[in-house]
Each structure stands twice: as C-alpha cells, then as structure tokens.
Amino acid sequence: MMYWIRQFSRCVACVFLLAITGCITQTDSGQSVTFHNAWWVWAGIIAVGLIFMPIGFGLLRSDRRLAFGMILMGPLAIIGLAPTFYRAQVTVDDQGVETRQAFWGLSSANSVRFADAAKLRSGQEAGRRGKMHEVLFFDLKSGGVTPIHITGDMMREARSEIIRRAKAAGIPSTAPEQPPED
Predict the structure, then answer these.
(1) Which of 105, 106, 109 minimizes the C-alpha distance to 90?
(2) Taking the complete model, does pTM exceed 0.90, yes or no?
(3) Which helix (H) or strand (E) segment is 96 a member of?
(4) Looking at the DSSP assignment, which residues form a beta bridge with residue 93?
(5) Left, alpha or beta for 65 (phi > 0: left; psi -120 to 50: alpha)?
(6) By 3-state DSSP, what share of the chain in percent is helix, strand and coil, each rounded to 5?
(7) What 3-state DSSP class applies to 37?
(8) In what order do the strands lie in the sheet with 96-101?
(9) What are phi and psi of 40, to 5 degrees?
C-alpha cells in the first residue's frame, strides 16, 4: 500500500510542476500590456498545499519521513510559493516597463521610464551555476544603467513587447527583435 501512495505522490508532484511552467497570461488594456501567471497556478498551489497536510497526517503511522515532508510542504507552499506566483508580473506601457518577481518578501522590482532612457542594448550575464541569461540594459540619460533580466517564462514572453514599446518611444536600440537561442 505504501508503495502506491509514494508513487501517487510523486506523480501528482510531477504533473503539478509541469502544469505550472509556462502558464503566463497576457492582459492588454489598450494602454498597457500586463504579463502575469494564470489564476489557476497560484490557486492550484494553495489547493495542493491544503491537500498535502491531511494526507501527511494520515501517513504518520506508516511512513514518518514522507508524512513530515508533506505536512511541512503544505504550509510552505501556501505561505511562500502561492503569493510568489500571485504577485509576479510585468507591465509594459508607452511610458515604461515595471517588473515585479522573485519570492514573496524578497521580491525585486525594476522600473524604467522610457523618457529617462537614452539607449536600449542587450547583453548576457552569468546566473546561478554559471548559466548565461539575457539582460536588457537601459542606459539612462542621467548616466546610470538599469538592467532588466530576461529570466523565466514571464520575462521571455514580455521581452518583445518591451523592445517594441521602447523603440516606439524613440529609444535607439541594439537589442535584436528575436530572442537569442538558448
């Protein structure tokens, strides 16, 4: 019996992880375009977190390690992961671009006003474990540089809209229209 419960738990986890990747919704209000996770992604995380806790308590007698893992992962998913997917978004309009991403409580927000930008260029930076990812650099008229990291499905979806709106605002750009191949 325990074997089937473990296998079922693994299958549910795999299907859920595959389901939440790439579920980006684009909302066009005419003036701005907002990219965000589909509503069912964060709702599904909450549902899975709620389901894991009672299953974990039910498994306490048979497999304590799996039980404690499920009991701990349920609240962590509800408190930490669901708000992260709910709050993440990229908004692009004729005035600029605003990004909000990363973990809840440790979120990073970038904002660039096109009126303050002198030039848009594309480059690459090494991320975790040395993997390269694309970065859009906005050279500001004040002399600073604001990077917009193109990491994750949401940023890859928003990339072409950011470049299109920046060019429409008259910002000279060396960033290619099509994203570089991975």
Answers:
(1) 109
(2) no
(3) strand 96-101
(4) 32
(5) alpha
(6) 45, 30, 25
(7) strand
(8) 24-28, 32-37, 89-93, 96-101, 108-113
(9) -75, -15
CA dihedral of 59, 64, 65, 67, whole degrees rounded to 10: 30
Reference 79, options 52, 114, 56; nearest CA is 52
Q: Could you list the pLDDT tens digit for every one of the 182 residues in the chain?
A: 567 766 776 776 666 666 666 588 888 888 899 999 888 888 888 988 998 898 889 888 888 888 898 899 999 989 888 888 888 899 999 999 999 876 666 667 789 999 999 999 999 888 778 888 889 999 999 999 999 988 888 888 899 999 999 999 999 988 887 776 65
CA 34 to CA 28: how far, in whole Å?
Answer: 6
